[in-house]
Amino acid sequence: MRPEKDILTHIINLGQEITQVKDVDLLLEKILTESRSFVNADAGSIYVKLENKLIFSHAQNTTLQKKLPPGKKLIYSTFTVPVDNLSIAGYVANNGETINIDDVYSLPDGVPYAFDKKYDEISEYRTQSMLSFPLKTPQDEILGVLQLINAMDAGGNIIPFSKEDEPFIMHFANSAAIALERAQMTRALILRMLRMAEMRDPKETGAHVNRVGAYSAVIYEAWALKKGISQQEIDKTKDILRMAAMLHDVGKVAISDVILKKPARLDVDEFEIMKQHTFLGAKLFADSHSEFDKAAFYIALEHHERWDGKGYPGNVSFNRGAEAEDFVFSTESAQPKEAEEIHPFGRLVAIADVYDALSSRRCYKDAWDESEVLNTIREETGKQFDPDMVEAFFEVIDVVRNIRKQYPDEG
Ligand SMILES: [Fe+2]
Ligand SMILES: [Fe+2]
User: What ligand is nearest to the CA atom of residue 275?
Assistant: First the structure.
């Protein structure tokens, strides 16, 4: 038995740690990892509540993970369950109660919910003990359900979840809910900013920016691991990068409708104006020195640069104007920017953005076949794209594909 004081300190530290994660998806991963390790659970999943549905959005499973080659991520499908008393997660969300079950294959008589064996069958996994609790804000709003699966003893045998751990996990769930609420607000705010951009440019949809953000985070991780960057540093950067990458084209709000909404290819002069969305976007983040603003600055400015130096806008000169918020960019005689002169985030988002643009239908073109898209990316190695980034991209291609499914284009 762990001394109570240690457990409390541990829980308090966890609570503080999770409040620092600003991105919703990374936060949910962290909530899962930390709560699982606390009760030594083999697996776990999180459902996020949206109106009267629960969306299965994150899953971890040590046993299934071990069957994968090192570095590969577990691929799971997303599905929804209604908030009602018929499923375990649905019941928890509907009633705000914690449920601790010793074996989901022999539920106590008289309970209204049933266990759905389908997912065990698909994944060839045997769910046994399960601890499910609501992620509830101090205002009693239920944001989701956290499900911990198969508690293990020191010998690796599956045991029931200890009743004594329940209050600690509840406490942790409350901190998690507060952090989640805040992260959802931050994301909603960014999405609102993006919707403004989308109203101007119908090509930049919410699904596109969500995908580019998510791809960027996974490609970055694969790239950074090879560069020997520590996992702690990677986690922190991923969080910032993901949100900043979503804003890559935010500078388009400043481009005229005549150009943005032109249903055909732009002519040379129009394209010159369109190119300005890079530094016009960067300008929004130029005056601040937070890590997030720095990342958003480089991404907006450099996501159309090319490894061979033939991209744009190049080394624009960048001067502070008379007013504090007034930055003056000049593209006149801008020298090309190439290779490592381009910030890693710029090189990274370039691949994520091009991959997504080619794979998606746009009003002036059909979606390309995946093989064509991948061939293009391969051919552009060392030309348009940084060879190391391309390598990282292909390492995580399965995860990238799964992200495409998670954020489909509407309509
Ligand atoms: Fe762009
Ligand atoms: Fe884009």
Answer: 1
